[in-house]
Structures are given as C-alpha cells and as structure tokens.
Amino acid sequence: MSTCRLHPRGPSPDPALLDRCRALPTSTLSDSMERTGGVCGVHPVPGGRWPRVAGPALTVRTRPGDNLVVHRALDLAQPGDVLVVDAGGALDRAVLGELMARWAAARGLAALVVDGAVRDVEGLAAGALPVFARGVNHLGPYKVGPGEIGGPVQAGGTVVRAGDVVVGDADGVVVVPRERAAEVVAAGEGLARAEEAVLADIAAGVWDRSWVAAALTEVPVGEEVRR
Ligand SMILES: O=C([O-])CC(=O)C(=O)O
Ligand SMILES: [Mg+2]
After folding, report:
1. Which of 95, 117, 130, 221 ranks highest by number of CB atoms within 10 Å?
2. Which of this chain's residues are annotated to bind substrate (predicted)?
3. Distance 57 CA to ligand 1 centre (A)
4. Whole domain around residue 103: which residue ranges?
5. Residue 64: which of 123, 137, 166, 171 has the closest Cα?
6. Residue 172: inside a domain
7. Which pTM does this prediction carry?
C-alpha cells in the first residue's frame, strides 16, 4: 500500500463562462494573460483532432512512470472535469493509454492533459476524448503510487489548482486561474474582435504596418541598402 493525498474538490466554474472559453483560441487566452499561463510543450496527441475543450481542472500529481493515483482520479472525477496529470514531464514511461481514455470518456470527463508520456496513440486519436500530452512511449506505467489528487500541481511550467479553467485546442493548453477567469475571458473577447478587424484590413489591403519599422533602429550593412 502507498499513499494518495486527497484534497477537497475545487470550485466549479460558471458553465456560461466555459462556453465563452470554448469560443476563444488558446492563443487569444494566453495573450489575455500577458502572454503567460500556457502549459508549454503539451499538445494534442499525434493524429488527434478535436474541437476546443474547456473545463475545471482535476489535478493529479503522480510519481513519474506510475499511474495508480491517475486511475484513482478517473474514478473520483466528475463529468466535465479536465484531468491534469503532473507526471514530472517524464517521457521514459507512459502514465495513460487507450483503456483509461475510454474509461474517462465513459465517465464524462472533458479532456486529459498529461505533463508526461502516454501510449496507444492511434486509439487515443480515434477516441472522442481530447488527450494532450508531452510525449509518447510504448513502455507502460507501474501501479504502485504514491501521489496526490486535487492539490496544486505544475504542468508545462504553469501552476494548476483544482477548479482552474483549462482550455485546450490544436495549439496546446492554457490554464486560466479561477479567480481571473471572468476578467481574462472578457479581455480575450476584446482581443478576438481586434483580430477580426485586422483580418478585414488585410483582406482590404489596408493593414497599417507603420508600427513595425517604427519599433526598429535599422543599421545599414554593406553598399546596397534594402528599403
Ligand atoms: O496500462 C495502463 O495503465 C495504461 C494503458 O496502457 C491504458 O490505459 O490503456
Ligand atoms: Mg493500453
């Protein structure tokens, strides 16, 4: 027997706010957090193409290469949760595969995010549940523990707490701190409108590019100077 430290569930985000998150690219959301808040190096598994997903984090910290507490978290999760597994970024052993993803989908989880390796990627990519991971390895996990469920973890260099809002799409994963979610989503909607205006300017051939050269001191090199 080993230990699984178990924290209380995090708060549940407002469902309307999650809907608004699903309308915003992760790039826009991280732009709305001073270009921080991204889970770096964790992406949809190869071949996986899913609609953008958003939900509250259910956090798991596991011993790298071991998935006993990940199995336990799948049984404790509630529908709509995004399981965020801090496996220490280790790639030498998968901590999750197709069977677990199928079970997670059957239990109504929204997505799986693994700062570590997964396996069975063809099966994962063919499944309904979005799976994001740092890497892939056929070598399977031990099931010994220990670990922790619901405590603060790190994923891709970002702190994730239970109930933080996790958003994942083709670009990767962003974590919006729960107390900032309303503010960040509103800022993201403003940025999205601004990008729509830029796209219209590009289509009309009138995008104002003056800020680019104005931000540079150009130092001529050689005889022919490109202007
Ligand atoms: O062995 C495991 O626990 C991981 C795995 O391959 C699966 O979930 O299919
Ligand atoms: Mg498997």
Report:
1. 95
2. 97-100, 119
3. 21
4. 4-188
5. 137
6. yes
7. 0.95
